[in-house]
Amino acid sequence: MQFQRVTLIGVGLLGGSLGLALRRHSPAVVITGVVRRPEAQLEALQRGIVHTATTDAERAVRDADLIVFCTPVGQMRALAEQILPYVRPGTVITDVGSAKADVVRDLETVFATRDVHFVGGHPMAGGEQMGMSAARADLFDGAICVVTPTARSNREAVVSVSGLWRSFGSRVYELAPARHDILVGRSSHLPHIAAAALAGLVLSPDAPPEQAILCSTGFRDTTRIASGSPEMWRDILLANRGAVAEAIQDLMDELAQVQSAVASGDGERLEAFFATAKQRRDRWLSGHPG
């Protein structure tokens, strides 16, 4: 299935990058962007992300054959219910949300009442910068994109959504929604929590003034992703709270072991801790040069 008219609901970093990637790889596709603020309409047009920009989601989806939700996951169900009466039969719908089980369940339920096809998606790409000003056409080049079909999914729609991401140079990987959430809860959600906790603790206003001065490249690199969208990460953690809570507990258990080794002066255990981490990261990095 080749898409002719695409509507992006949300034109931030991911939605904006998706628009730019479509403009680069599929120049014949007509792209409409749905934004929250009237002033964002002009910006989306000036940056060449979309052909048309509007604040009217209902109008924007009427002629689309592909609709992509690029909003925080907590907003998706309400938006799906809002546009439902205006979506054409046969339309394919996907999303870019970082939590999948709740989103897939909610949106499949909403769209089951009409002849439209929802397929969950999650491009493993992004950054700490927010908004369409950070969007770029090559964001998805070489990135993993997880597609999360279920037993209710239309297979042709799954193939079409997968083909969309492959056209940008992404590597597509299929996972069940719940399996996705467990794995991404550790590889993506947990690092954001750790970075935010470290930034909040070390840069607390209760810290002495010299503390921030002595934060150098290691602190900067470790906490980079703490500059992400608070709204987006709130919604992601709430949507994936079960898997995230387990991941946090496992990290706390790991830190407790390190704390015990430090308190007891056990240099052998500490060296083994760092050696294991280095070995595992180096092995992973050698297979993921991007």
| CATH H-level homologous superfamily name of the largest domain | NAD(P)-binding Rossmann-like Domain
CATH architecture of the largest domain: 3-Layer(aba) Sandwich
Outline the biggest β-sheet: 8 strands, mixed
Secondary-structure class: alpha/beta
How far the N terminus sits from the C terminus, by CA atoms, comes to: 30 Å
The value of Rg in angstroms is 21 Å
Low-confidence stretches: none
Strand content: 5-15%
**How are helices and strands ordered from N to C?**
EHEHEHEHEHEEHEHHHHHH
Mean pLDDT: 94
Read across the widest sheet, the strand sequence of neighbours is 3-2-1-4-5-6-7-8
Number of helices: 12
CATH topology (fold) name of the largest domain: Rossmann fold
According to DSSP, the number of beta strands is 8
Tally of domains: 2
Indicate the percent of residues in helices: 40-55%
CATH class placement of the largest domain: Alpha Beta
Shape: globular
Word description of this protein:
This protein is an alpha/beta fold. The chain folds into two domains: 5-176, Rossmann fold, CATH 3.40.50; 179-287, 6-phosphogluconate dehydrogenase C-terminal fold. The chain is 51% helix and 13% strand. It is built from twelve helices and eight strands. The protein has an eight-stranded mixed β-sheet, sandwiched between helices. The two termini are 30 Å apart.
